[in-house]
Amino acid sequence: MNKLMVALGLLSLAGGAFAAGKPCEELKSEIAAKLDAKGVSGYSLEIVDKGAATDGKVVGSCEGGAKEIVYKRG
Fold first, then answer.
1. Which residues does residue 1 pair with via DSSP β-bridges, in sequence order?
2. pLDDT at 40 > cutoff 70
């Protein structure tokens, strides 16, 4: 019974960390590094609230799904 309680406690801690999501600036930097490594230029990445009307393509989700990272060319 004790082992079960410890296992459930660890799972709940891991679940809380996963639900928090990655910070937006960190994810934006990672996406930019990948694009730069592929030789992509002339783009912008913008952090917006989830579901906000944009004319770009959503390329990432951060802060527990509350915000999105939008890619725009030019």
1. none
2. yes
Q: Please state the rounded mean pLDDT for residues 35-55.
A: 93
Q: Which residues contact 65 (CB under 8 A, 6 or more apart)?
A: 21, 50
In percent, the amount of the chain with pLDDT more than 70 equals 73
- Short-list 41, 64, 35, 67, CA closest to 54: 67
User: Which residues touch 63 (CB under 8 Å, ≥6 apart)?
Assistant: 20, 21, 22, 23, 24
Q: What is the DSSP letter of 55?
A: S
Whether the predicted pLDDT of 38 surpasses 90: yes
pTM of the model as a whole: 0.70
Q: Please give the Cα distance from 72 to 63 (Å, whole number).
A: 21
- The Cα–Cα gap between 14 and 36 comes to 32
